[in-house]
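Extended Data, panel c. Modelled sequence:
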Amino acid sequence: MRTDTQIKPKRGFAAMSPEKRREIAAKGGASVPAEKRSFSQNRDLAASAGRVGGSASPSLRRDA
C-alpha cells in the first residue's frame, strides 16, 4: 500500500539523463536501411497510407 509520502522511482526514459535521451532519439530509424523504408522512397504510398489510417477507425471519432 502506497502513501502520499512515498516517491515513485523513475523508469525508462524518465530515469535517463537528457543527453542519453537525445543520443537515443537521434538514432531513430537508423537501424532500418534506406531501401527498406518504403515511405521515404514513395511519397504516394505514404500519402495513401495516411489517408487509410485516418479513416480506419471512424467508431473512435466523436462529433462534438
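The CA atoms of residues 54 and 63 lie 15 Å apart. This feature is highlighted in the accompanying rendering.
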